[in-house]
Specification:
Strand content: under 5%
């Protein structure tokens, strides 16, 4: 018989799985040039993140803006 901790862990696991399933990873072909600043996106980044359209610096700025609600 499951105790309260086991049930709570089940809810946590289900919530985490649902959240992860909603994430949409980059898909498709990566851009050669950043759509924000126009700098060339290095091949290593293009190969590591499929469908990338921002350089590392612009991606960092984009993520900071999202975190701060801008």
């Amino acid at each position: 018989m499951a105790d309260i901790a086991d049930r709570a862990q089940g809810v946590i696991d289900a919530t985490l799985a649902a959240s992860l399933s909603r994430l949409s990873p980059h898909q498709g072909q990566s851009a050669h040039y950043c759509c924000e600043c126009g700098d060339q996106i290095p091949d290593a980044r293009r190969n590591a993140v499929h469908g990338v359209s921002l350089c590392v610096d612009c991606q960092r700025i984009h993520e900071m803006r999202q975190r701060n609600g801008l």
